[in-house]
Amino acid sequence: MEKLTIALGTTSEQKIKYLEKVLRELKIEAQLIPTKVTSGVSDQPKTTKETEQGSINRAKGAFGKIPEADFAIGIEVGYHKNNKDEYEMFCWVTIIDKNGYQLSSQSHKFLLPKYHQGLLNNDLYLGDNLDGYMSGEESTNHVKKQIDDIVRYRKPFIENALRSALIRYVQKEDFDANLPL
């Protein structure tokens, strides 16, 4: 496979780093062109549909700014209430290529602790209130520290959705029923 040019609908160093890691794992050579775009959804999407739409809008926005790219990627992290009325965190990634092919992939979901549930239920922005979860003696609790890292940096969700989307895109003939074998 020749080196790809990928327009990325974010300038987040964190998300760029996660994408570079997944590309290395999959042995995909690419030039990344991060670009500032808007998601067109709320800053803290609270439904799976809104989160997916944010990833689609980011991919479309990146492709619109970098039309010479082989494809564009949009990444959006969000939340939704499960059937027990509890918030879960996840990520959607969308890939759109220059031929109009589009696919979206959702990461696994993670049930948020009660502390984070309260923030979301009170319409508080999670990113501005993360420090309250780790306080006092609890800061020596290694499992709680792991939970804090997962929610704070979102790495498992973003990498999972990126990996799934890239695998499905690069090997689309193995996954897309509309393409010949």
Automatic annotation (TrEMBL):
GO terms for biological process: nucleotide metabolic process; thiamine metabolic process. It is an enzyme of class 3 (hydrolase). Its EC number is 3.6.1.73. Keywords: Hydrolase, Magnesium, Manganese, Metal-binding, Nucleotide metabolism, Nucleotide-binding. It holds the Pfam family NTPase_I-T. One of its GO terms (molecular function) is metal ion binding. It catalyses: XTP + H2O = XDP + phosphate + H(+); ITP + H2O = IDP + phosphate + H(+). Its cofactor is Mg(2+); Mn(2+). Residues 9-141 form the Non-canonical purine NTP phosphatase/PRRC1 domain. PANTHER family: NON-CANONICAL PURINE NTP PHOSPHATASE_PRRC1 DOMAIN-CONTAINING PROTEIN (PTHR34699:SF2), PTHR34699. This is inosine/xanthosine triphosphatase. It comes from Candidatus Kaiserbacteria bacterium RIFOXYD1_FULL_47_14.
